[in-house]
Specification:
globular; mainly alpha; single chain; about 0% strand; 21 helices
């Protein structure tokens, strides 16, 4: 509970603060936010270069203290070097990401990545040592600081500035910064998170076992390729959108803002996947030497897919409710709402791929995982170039789904060859097919209705709840034996 629930809370709090950008700024004003947060994951991968996953892997083979000291020494040195290099190349980087109008955004982004990278291994240490309370405290506190500062800038300092710019609170706000205050808040929160990890740093000693580091880097460098490929698949469409579409720059910025806003709604599924990955990596490595590990992995996959199906339905069946989160003040955001189910199902496929990836991590075949990801990245590039000019962000959404589906299938086929796991393949495919059909059925039921009619919300949300409940009943009946074995809810399920 301490490990999972606070992490869920922190992720959804950050999700909420991201959605706030689309309540405060129209699509033209939010494009810079979309662009910066599309670039940041690439830098996170470059700065950490696979050392988090490697830490979990090699902690089973080497002295943990020596490993932690060596990896942390390496990452601290490289973080300072990478950050200095980016600052020296500030102007070319700004030109590359088309942030010429807001070069300070790039500076703040570098600062965020700097602090987040220094926090990476101490946070991994907490996960490995199963210290969920400290992990939860650090996570939630950082997010609360982020939220608190955003609310302060826009709902305290901004009104004070508008009333009298020469008051103390008024001097803390500058209208030209605009959406940049989200970055400033993130920067301060990242720095505060590092301070909260002072004990983990106090236990750290500068020490570099070169032989050990070489061994770790040989394992981790394919993971960098995997990470970059994954980010290309996830973020490329937003980074290149303006370059692919010829025409009016203002229209491109508008569409990018709409795309970014609706992408955030699909992130509801991605949040669950991220939470799963945080817990799964150390779990998979710890279980790898246990008897019946493959059966355990298959069981985890089944529960994971079921949870993803529920997450998908929660998003896809209730789109009219979700779109209010982004389009309440600026209705123009809602024009891209149709891409959310496509992106959400793509996220489900991505989550399954992450779950399947245990085979190459446990068998030290990370390079094969890299090739799968690179193939997916190549497919993403081709599909984006072909589809975006004709179908705009709808084409980008379909490119994402096709890419993740392809990677999932490839990883499954190779995984069954090198590390067979008895996944309930037919049953899991049936669950995915059923939730897709339920979404399409709901769309067919509400499509002929008049959205302005008074009865519309009752029919829309009533049928959505009915279909969601039907799927829940199906799962309960089919998987009753599995649920009975679970702690806490097992006794309740047995009575049903």
């Amino acid at each position: 509970m301490w490990y999972g629930v606070p992490r869920i809370v922190s992720r959804f709090l950050f999700f909420g603060i991201s959605l706030l950008t689309f309540q405060l700024f129209d699509p033209n004003g939010s494009y810079a936010y979309t662009q910066i947060y599309a670039l940041m994951p690439f830098l996170n991968i470059l700065f950490t270069y696979g050392l988090e996953t490697s830490y979990f892997r090699f902690a089973q083979l080497h002295d943990r203290k020596e490993l932690y000291n060596t990896l942390n020494t390496s990452i601290i040195i490289s973080t300072f070097l990478f950050s200095a290099l980016l600052l020296l190349l500030h102007e070319p980087v700004t030109n590359l990401v088309e942030m010429n109008k807001r070069p300070e955004f790039v500076t703040w982004m570098i600062g965020i990545v700097f602090f987040d990278t220094l926090c990476a291994l101490p946070m991994a240490k907490l996960r490995l040592e199963e210290r969920p309370r400290k992990y939860a405290l650090v996570n939630v506190t950082g997010v609360l600081i982020n939220i608190g500062l955003v609310l302060f800038f826009y709902f305290v300092a901004k009104p004070a500035y508008e009333n009298d710019r020469y008051t103390f609170l008024g001097t803390l706000y500058r209208p030209e910064i605009g959406i940049g205050y989200f970055l400033i808040a993130n920067l301060v929160a990242s720095a505060a998170t590092l301070l909260l990890l002072y004990k983990e740093f106090a236990a750290f000693r500068f020490s570099l076992n070169v032989k050990l580091l070489k061994e770790v880097l040989l394992y981790s460098y394919p993971l960098v390729i995997v990470g970059f490929g994954g980010m290309i698949n996830e973020m490329l469409s937003r980074l290149v959108y303006q370059k692919i579409i010829p025409g009016d720059t203002q229209q491109e910025e508008f569409e990018l803002g709409v795309f970014g806003a609706n992408y955030k709604l699909a992130v509801v599924v991605t949040i669950f996947i991220q939470i799963f990955r945080l817990a799964a990596e150390p779990f998979f490595f710890n279980q790898s030497k246990q008897e019946g590990a493959q059966r355990m992995y298959a069981r985890v996959m089944k529960f994971f897919v079921i949870a993803c199906c529920f997450m998908f339905l929660s998003v896809a069946l209730f789109l009219d409710g979700w779109k209010l989160l982004i389009a309440y003040r600026f209705p123009s955001y809602a024009e891209g709402i149709h891409i959310v189910p496509i992106l959400a199902m793509g996220s489900v496929f991505l989550g399954i791929y992450y779950n399947l990836s245990v085979w190459y991590k446990l068998t030290n075949r990370n390079m094969m995982g890299a090739w799968i990801t690179l193939a997916g990245a190549a497919l993403t590039i081709v599909l984006n170039v072909v589809l975006i000019p004709h179908y705009r962000y709808t084409g980008a959404a379909w490119a994402t789904l096709v890419c993740y589906a392809s990677m999932m299938v490839a990883s499954y086929l190779l995984g069954q060859k090198y590390y067979p796991v008895p996944y309930a393949r037919k049953k899991l495919l049936a669950y995915i097919a059923i939730v897709t059909l339920l979404y399409l059925l709901h769309e067919a039921m509400v499509w002929p209705l008049n959205e302005k009619a008074g009865y519309y919300p009752f029919v829309y949300f009533g049928t959505a709840l009915l279909l969601l409940g039907s799927f829940a009943w199906l799962i309960l009946k089919v998987e009753k034996r599995e649920f009975v074995k679970l702690p806490y809810i097992g006794k309740w399920v047995e009575k049903v």
